[in-house]
Each structure stands twice: as C-alpha cells, then as structure tokens.
Amino acid sequence: MDHRAVAIIPSGDLDASTAFYRRLGLEVLGDYGHYRILADGRGWHLHLNLMSGWPRQIEDNPFGLYLYVDDVDAVAAAVRELIIDPATPHVTPWGTYEFAVSDPTGLLVRVGRVVDQA
C-alpha cells in the first residue's frame, strides 16, 4: 500500500464546508453525520469533522492546506470570486504557480503546482 496523508479539518458548519470543497473539485465519499470524507478521485482526500463553535473568530484559524493540481487555472476559475489576491494565480518566488482562498472556517487553502525552473 502506498503511503498518504489526509487532513482532518474542523468545521463549525459541515454543509458550508462541503459546498466550498465541492467547488474546488472534491465530492463526498462518506457522510457520518458529524464527519464527512471527501475526495476528488485523483489524489486529494480530506475529512471534515464537526466542531461546534470552531473557530471562535475566523481570523484566529492558524491552519492551512495546500492542494497540488496540474490545472491550477481550471480550479481558480471555479472559485474566482473567493480568491484572496485577485492578481493570482501567479508564479511565486519559491517556484509554484498558485492562488489562495479561505474556507468557511478561515482555513487558508492554497491551490497550485510546482513550476519548472530551468
């Protein structure tokens, strides 16, 4: 079996979080009431865990998630109005082509790919 890591993301509103991640291309594989499993069928997996009252203030959420994808522009088009910096996606100094959005709990979600640096 291959190794992989899966993020378990707390959510104060599973429906809002699920709708957000669906826009990024994930679908619900399992719904257990307080816990949902999402995947895109190509390698992205994440779990949403209902945490009532999380976070107390959206700006206090210190966590982040990076989703690697080949077609960054297609994902960006699906969430264009949510992108934090309207000048993105763009190539960063650290060698990625990416953009960032915030999920309903304030979790910073970056979507990007590594660019060839010749």
Summarize the structure in words.
This protein has a single domain, classed as Roll (2,3-Dihydroxybiphenyl 1,2-Dioxygenase, domain 1), CATH 3.10.180.10. 14% of the residues lie in helices and 36% in strands. It is built from two helices and eight strands; from the N terminus they run βαββββαβββ. The chain is globular. The relative contact order is 0.21. It comes from Sphingomonas prati.
Descriptive keywords:
118 residues, alpha/beta, 2,3-Dihydroxybiphenyl 1,2-Dioxygenase, domain 1, four-stranded mixed sheet, 2 helices, 14% helix, 36% strand, Catechol 2,3-dioxygenase-like lactoylglutathione lyase family enzyme
CATH H-level name... which superfamily? 2,3-Dihydroxybiphenyl 1,2-Dioxygenase, domain 1
Number of domains: 1
Q: End-to-end distance, in Å?
A: 34 Å
Structural class: alpha/beta
Task: Please estimate the helix content.
Answer: 10-25%
* Uncertain residue ranges: none
Would you count the extended β strands for me? 8
How would you write the strand order of the largest sheet? 1-4-3-2
What would the CATH topology be?
2,3-Dihydroxybiphenyl 1,2-Dioxygenase, domain 1
Estimated radius of gyration: 15 Å
What is the annotated CATH architecture? Roll
Largest sheet: 4 strands, mixed
The overall pLDDT average reads 93
Strand content: 35-45%
CATH C-level class is: Alpha Beta
What order do the SSEs take from the amino end to the carboxyl end, as H and E? Answer: EHEEEEHEEE
The rough form would be described as: globular
How many H/I helical runs?
A: 2
Pfam families: Glyoxalase
Keywords: Dioxygenase, Lyase, Oxidoreductase
GO molecular function, one term: dioxygenase activity
Protein name: Catechol 2,3-dioxygenase-like lactoylglutathione lyase family enzyme
